[in-house]
């Protein structure tokens, strides 16, 4: 892959994270072996974290209800990471095809001045979204380390804590504690990277696909090129047949591009549909648990801080993800509107003119059905999904507060 050659910061960061988790593509057998090693380490760390949190539920039940909710929230977070990375690894061949197509047709393609402006805006938006999302994800991971560090360096406190509670006394012995602490810091960093790397790909894919639909709209509205059909019509001069031939040739290229975009995003849906379904399903639970722990009366300042950051990070992540899907949905339907910018009514009724009008009707009919990302094929993801998930989370939160 030639991502290193681009000046797109969002692509550079995303490819770096995917390489660390072993989900990026390999160009030779040596890179394939390194990729498998990286993924083996990633999935081992994730399963280790999931084992720790599931085991901690047993001890949390005997401590307090707050500790139980705290542990359940951690389990949901790690479970999302395990599911996303595992599913994407299983579908690595389809994922590799998507990356190759995006590279050849989206990231490293020559555009004219107007199209380059649209692509530049898309890259800028991707950079902003990914930087903010990465900030929330890594800040949440780092916040788990703050309290143990403060207590470790506080001479008045004799109790040692680990970022991830393991309830093993021998781990608190000198040297063993420091080594375990460093190991868990590495695990938390890996959780942060695993949590955001797959979502980064989905953000970039959605925003670049929406940009391609905007470019398609621009090309359709400009199929007449530099020929001013309005002036010819106003001067009562019949439009030459050659102009209709030229317009129809350009229009056929637009139809091919439209078909390619529809096929491409259908493949995107096949790769990410199950991931999206699991993520949205668990998001309402996570938002509920975060809100409960954040507003708990006897919650410690440390946990209140952790889950305040986590809650706002989840809300922001869900908003940006559903917004990116909604952009694709809206832009794919806006393709039909671009036909109203064409002076197709004054084109001569020769063979090309008739074919253009016929094909235009077909494209209008297809554009009325939006191109969208589904959650496992059960429902379409859009901004409406965002409001429904928040509504469900508030309902769960109300029941939990009454408990």
List keywords for this structure.
elongated, mainly alpha, 76% helix, 403 residues
The number of E-state strands comes to: 0
Strand content: under 5%
Number of helices: 11
Report the order of strands and helices.
Answer: HHHHHHHHHHH
How much helix, percentage-wise, in residues? over 70%
Main sheet makeup: none
Instruction: Round the Cα radius of gyration to an integer and report it.
Output: 26 Å
Structural class estimated from helices and strands: mainly alpha
Uncertain parts:
none
Q: State the end-to-end distance.
A: 53 Å
Mean pLDDT: 78
Shape verdict: elongated
Structure description:
By secondary structure, the protein is an all-alpha fold. It has eleven helices and no strands. Helix 1 packs across helix 6, helix 2 (29-63) packs antiparallel against helix 3 (65-90) and helix 5 packs antiparallel against helix 9 (301-333). The radius of gyration is 26 Å and the shape is elongated. The mean pLDDT is 78.
Topology:
Elements: H1 9-21, H2 29-63, H3 65-90, H4 92-107, H5 113-153, H6 176-221, H7 229-234, H8 241-295, H9 301-333, H10 351-367, H11 383-402
In short:
This protein has 403 residues and is an all-alpha fold. It has eleven helices and no strands.
């Amino acid at each position: 892959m030639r991502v290193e050659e681009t000046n797109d910061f969002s692509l550079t960061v995303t490819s770096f994270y995917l390489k660390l988790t072993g989900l990026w593509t390999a160009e030779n057998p040596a890179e394939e072996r390194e990729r498998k090693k990286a993924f083996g380490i990633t999935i081992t760390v994730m399963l280790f974290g999931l084992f720790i949190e599931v085991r901690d539920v047993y001890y949390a039940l005997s401590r307090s209800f707050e500790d139980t909710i705290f542990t359940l929230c951690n389990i949901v977070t790690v479970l999302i990471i395990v599911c996303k990375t595992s599913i994407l690894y299983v579908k690595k061949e389809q994922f590799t095809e998507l990356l190759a197509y995006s590279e050849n047709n989206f990231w490293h393609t020559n555009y004219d001045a107007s199209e380059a402006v649209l692509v530049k805006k898309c890259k800028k938006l991707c950079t902003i979204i990914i930087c903010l999302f990465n900030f929330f994800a890594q800040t949440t991971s780092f916040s788990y380390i703050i309290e143990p560090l403060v207590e470790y360096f506080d001479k008045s406190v004799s109790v040692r804590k680990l970022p991830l509670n393991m309830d093993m006394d021998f781990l608190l012995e000198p040297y063993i504690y420091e080594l375990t602490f460093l190991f868990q810091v590495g695990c938390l960093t890996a959780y942060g990277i695993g949590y955001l790397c797959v979502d980064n790909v989905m953000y970039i894919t959605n925003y670049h696909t929406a940009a391609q639909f905007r470019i398609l709209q621009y090309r359709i509205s400009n199929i007449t090129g530099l020929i001013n059909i309005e002036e010819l019509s106003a001067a009562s001069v019949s439009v030459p047949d050659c102009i209709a031939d030229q317009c129809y040739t350009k229009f056929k290229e637009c139809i091919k591009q439209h078909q390619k975009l529809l096929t491409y995003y259908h493949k995107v849906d096949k790769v990410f549909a199950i991931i999206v379904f699991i993520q949205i399903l668990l998001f309402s639970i996570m938002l509920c648990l975060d809100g409960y722990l954040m507003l708990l009366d006897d919650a410690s300042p440390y946990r209140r801080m952790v889950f305040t950051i986590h809650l706002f990070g989840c809300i922001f992540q869900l908003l940006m993800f559903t917004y990116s899907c909604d952009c694709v949905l809206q832009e794919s339907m806006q393709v039909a509107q671009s036909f109203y910018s064409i002076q197709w009514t004054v084109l001569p009724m020769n063979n090309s003119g008739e074919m253009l009008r016929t094909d235009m009707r077909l494209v209008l009919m297809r554009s009325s059905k939006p191109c969208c990302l589904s959650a496992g094929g059960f429902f379409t993801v859009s901004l409406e999904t965002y409001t429904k998930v928040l509504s469900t989370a508030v309902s769960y939160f109300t029941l939990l507060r009454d408990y």
